[in-house]
Amino acid sequence: MNQTQEPIPRKGIYRILVCRPNHRLGNMVLLTPLITELERLYKGVEIDILAEGDIAKEVFSTFFSVKNIYCLPKRGFKRPVRFLRMLLGVRKTQYDLIIDPIVASGFSRALVKFTKGRFKLGYSDTPEKSGLTHSVPLSAAPEHMAKRAVDLLHWGASHAAGAAIDYPTLDIRLTDAERAHGRKVIRDLLAVPQQAMTPLVVGVFANATGAKRYSREWWKEFMDTFRELSPSSNIVEIVPMHGRSMLDSEFPGYFTTDIRRMSAVMAGVDLMVSADCGVMHLAVASRVPTVGMFSVTDATVYEPYGLGSCALVTKGLTARETAQKVVESFSGLLAKGPTGQASHESMPSDRAIEAISGPAGP
Length: 362
What we know:
glycosyltransferase, LPS_LOS_Heptosyltrfase, Rossmann fold, single chain, alpha/beta, transferase, Glyco_trans_9
């Protein structure tokens, strides 16, 4: 940021607009740490989000600080009347702070220029052309997509780089009622009697887009190896939104087209295993430890973090070797049978925490 500029003040910031014109689930979920950090730095703030499509409404429906979620129509230039009407509506508000958290998005930057704000913050190496009042050099952006936005906010508020930041985790803030429904679905799928111990449950999402998708044969070898190494694990498949099992309906499966219901059910398992995709980020945001498997994309940009989640780069590994690494990484959880009544009341599950960090002290 231009060091001749004053940092964005911590006082007097009440109305904030975050510009993230994107319709993908993962990108919306990756925005949740920024909203959490805005709430921490600017207490009492009201936040509007400018997104695309309807997913943002589901992701942020329980965020008390989020007032308006403006969802531009997908391919909005094909619906110019609706598109322009919404933009003109956003432009009526005079914001204290407008944030463009994305590196090198021309569309997002154009929206920032079009809207009205006292301070405008984003990444740019050409501040005089950026339309920003506070620009941060691209070289300062961390690799991880979610952390970039948080770092951007701290730069704007302090002019500082490299300071230690306790990054918020992804979180779509499931309600207690949503979590209770999710736990009930898991028990019903596994036919667990009401008074019985909850078994060890591993959720699997076996879909992804394009080259990120593993073949059915790959998943068959992976699941056979996984069950061989962790026979006490009960598998629940999270069925993709196209409504077809990716594991040949071999395991109990849960299907929904509702993002929050999917999240609630994933919150009811002890561990999620997923290919790199939006549902992987949703699993992390459900506050369940998640193994994200990366075969194509850069794991440093999209890897799950926090609450015991981790990335596993599978390039050069067979499906069997991948399953072995998953079980090794969570050996304290997966190599054992149920050790007692499961506690899904706290997230992540107690058993998963022990698998990562060792048993809790007395």
